[in-house]
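Handout, section 4.2: multi-component inputs.
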Amino acid sequence: MSSIQPSGTALLVIDPYNDFTSRLGKGWPLIREVANEVGLIDNIKLALGEARRRHIPVVYAPHSRYRRRTLAATRWPNPSQYLARLTRFFADGRRGGRFRADLAPQPGEFVASEHPVSSGFTDTNLDAHLRSIGATHLIMCGLLTNTCIESTARAAVDLGYQVTVLDDAVAAWSHQDHAAALCGSLRHVAHEIISTKSFVTALR
Amino acid sequence: MTGSTFNRLANRMISGLAVAALRKQLTFDRGDTALLVVGAQRDLLDDAAAVSALARLISIARAGGLKVIYAVAAPPTSANGIHMPTPSQRALLAERLLSEGSAGAEFHPALAPGSGDVVLEPSAGLSAFSKRDLDLRLSMLGVERIVVAGARTDIEIDSTARDGVERGFQTTVVSDGCAGTTPQNHRATISTTLPRIVHGILTVDEVAARLTPTG
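Output:
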């Protein structure tokens, strides 16, 4: 049984942008397959609601939005960055680059600076903020399971955090991607993988 | 759980497009490329095929004038800074793998560093970048591209390759020069996970073919 102490714990929400999570989002036609099967949206909402009720800090780690002038900034874009540029994913100032309304931060919640690749910690103020609030245990949800979630989880482990991933509050482009992380590598490198319901129960 | 035909085909096409576009940029020059050999120790790497492929890769890299850097794995003990071990780290501790001074912590005899190679301070993190040593060496050497091989594909190689990409290095993982915790985990990381993350996944022969000729 999972044990979660509210003190020292933070809920880390990664990239709940409209392009990933809403019906008109650019990525939704592919993501909906895993998202609908696991109940992604409802489970992120459940985790958010419970964290807020228990006064567990909710922290957002957003991916960098598409902007014209960042085009030349990365010398070697990786496959995800290459495709994001091509499709103008998470376009700044557009619907796709805004958080889905019912998964968006509430006033007072911390939104870290944008991460350029996959890990929420690279070139951002996320680590400094988490340390400043005394968070040592991160509960992670959001997108995508095998890229930003796994990269952020791996980086968090090497920074000394305890990492729990909510397995039904994350999703990926395909079942294969999702399973490679959740049934494979993440199982070895995250401290714990639990359902959103177990997270909620563990807090009560 | 295999997904709809639409999802499978669309993913294959989209991912294939990015992989093919980036593959064109993979060339390795002694001036800007380093081979990063991760966890080439007996306790982590005992797959005969991977060992011989990696040994071949190392000699090809040396002959091509690439800098060869060894990232050494240390046991994930609290003395080494790991206070909350993950399941992968707990497994190493339970079997007392990589214990300091043990035979298992030594380099595999076929993969020992040569006199011109760099050997990093042992690191207990998932990623070889979890100690600053590697960053400093790479920037001192003017490296912009890294070629990553060794052990273990799904644990240390994955984290190290991700960190390489995060830091702006063009990052290539050598599929036959790596071994995973199990052959299935190796395959899942090489064929499913890393193609979304790294710039290239090549075999030893493909790396050799993309080296700038010396001379």
